[in-house]
Design a protein that fits this description.
The structure is a homodimer. With about 300 residues, the first copy, chain A, is of the alpha+beta class. The first copy, chain A, has helices at about 15-20, 35-55, 70-75, 80, 95-105, 180-200, 215-225, 255-260, 275-290, 295-305; strands spanning about 25, 35, 60-65, 65-70, 90, 115-125, 140, 145-155, 165-175, 205, 230-240, 240-250, 260-265, 265, 270-275. The longest helix of chain A has 21 residues, at about 180-200.
């Protein structure tokens, strides 16, 4: 699953597969990767499976970008709670003359960011943040269910298997009256477990907390735990390493309050059911091997067709 | 095509379509957007069309991330030539105590980036940069052809219709001996024009130059022009506004030299044929209207199914 060593990649005499790994190649910075054709087909097959799993809910599919207005994550509380994980986009605001000397700094391997300033966008930390601003000041007569896929960025400083800094999340998001949200969340937890079991993965459902920064952890973790706001579905992604491959998060009225979303005369609640696509693919490969013929029926058939 | 005014989005009494636009909703920062279900289906249909157009070449499909190691864009010359467009990812490197006071700055609407430092990643400016590092020190016996789709970020400071800061590009990239690259590029220029004509778009093929920063423009633009290194396929994307919806770029030995890619005993040349997916979708909607039934056969059928 790691990139072939450089000395193996000497020529493409036997076709491009010698040059490009079929599954995964490491990027030039830790926690980054490029994925090969077979890995992408596996992701496609997983996506198709999730679309079928969600079908009866007829969620509204939205297309989202991997960057978002900084104002949204500021308002939503992400900046305050997770400054260590957030990627802020900075841009060059100096003039041409200054740039000529900064290029020299870059060529000498030194810092060239002196004239860079924080811009109005950040790299998207979690896909559901793209939804709430569009519901601002809306009164939800019916609960609203959204289906989104996007790349998230988290500035992880450790890089064990499956802990990427940039990764794809498929998320189903529910916003509405509290009961319609908690009931939906329970249903999705079952559905996620069933679907992952159909891939013959051994999955454990575990209560979880978010990696809050500093003192916020002492305040927030016990709260998340005691109220059971977050569940993770955990599986082995590489020999001996277990990771959360899916999760179910109940935000109560956090986003409803921030974005003034109403439901049933009160503040709307929200929850999301999230699937880490690369991690699920890694778990499938870890469990069944690299050959699609050995993968569970639906997935293997789709990829090997 | 613009977001409905806030006062129209009061409730979802008649279904989620009242809340979420079917095509496009503006983001909280200029040049950002969220796309609705019909727009995403149009993108899917365009993608399927491009896959068919490229089929005979059997390109290697790679999955790429919307961020990339800073070292790659430094080496490739992007930082030097386009500092004004690059989004550099900065991260918080201060401690917990300092963060408590910076949160206060944020809440007061002031700059909170004092302890942020440039990280080792940037937001991806062009998708083909993800390919060359994996070909480093490779001798190409046969030309190599890659098929990638990804989100690019450019810190555009003007925001006319179709000029987004974050957008999807489908790119076919060719790396190999000079003739195998120029011939391929000529073939793709024809193929791109034919495919866009099949969508009944009026497309003009125009020589183009990249938006180099400052003095680099004076040096590079005449070179790009005289050597006809870049062609753009231009179409109307909104009443009166024309944009490049596809382009064809010949890099000569620029990337081959930088990444030491060999071909035929010399330095490999490279070219890419790039399709701006949102812009092509906007051009289809501008030309044929918002109803899939009125879209050209292949596209409309796929979406309306």
């Amino acid at each position: 699953m790691t990139a072939p060593p450089r000395d193996r990649r000497k020529s493409n005499q036997e076709g491009d597969k010698v040059v490009f790994d079929d599954l995964m190649m490491q990027g030039e910075a830790p926690g980054l990767a490029t994925y090969g054709p077979r890995f992408e087909e596996l992701i496609d097959a997983l996506q198709a499976g999730l679309t079928v799993a969600a079908e009866e809910e007829r969620p509204t599919r939205l297309g989202i970008q991997p960057v978002i207005a900084r104002s949204v994550v500021e308002r939503a509380g992400y900046v305050e709670a997770f400054p260590h994980l957030l990627g802020a986009v900075h841009t060059y605001e100096g003039d041409e003359k200054r740039w000529r000397s900064l290029v020299g700094e870059m060529e000498a391997g030194r810092d060239w960011s002196e004239e860079h300033r924080m811009s109005d966008v950040v790299v998207l930390p979690a896909v559901c943040y793209q939804v709430y601003p569009h519901l601002e000041d809306v009164e939800l007569v019916e609960p609203c269910t959204v289906d989104i896929t996007g790349y998230c960025y988290r500035h992880e400083r450790s890089h064990e298997p499956g802990r990427m800094r940039s990764f794809r999340m498929r998320e189903f998001v529910r916003v509405g009256e509290p009961e319609s949200v908690t009931e939906w969340r329970g249903r999705w937890l079952e559905r996620a477990r069933d679907w992952l079991s159909s891939l013959e993965l051994e999955v454990a459902v575990e209560p979880a907390t978010d990696p809050f920064f500093g003192g916020a952890a002492r305040l927030m973790k016990p709260l998340q735990e005691s109220e059971q706001l977050k569940w993770e579905l955990v599986a082995e992604v590489e020999g001996g390493t277990r990771q959360a491959i899916a999760s179910s998060n109940y935000h109560k009225d956090h986003f409803g309050g921030t974005f003034r979303i109403g439901a049933g005369g009160g503040i709307a609640h929200s929850a999301c059911s999230a699937f880490g696509l690369e991690r699920i693919a890694l778990a499938v490969i870890n469990r069944h091997g690299e050959s699609p013929e050995n993968w569970p029926l639906g997935v293997g058939k789709a990829v090997a067709r």
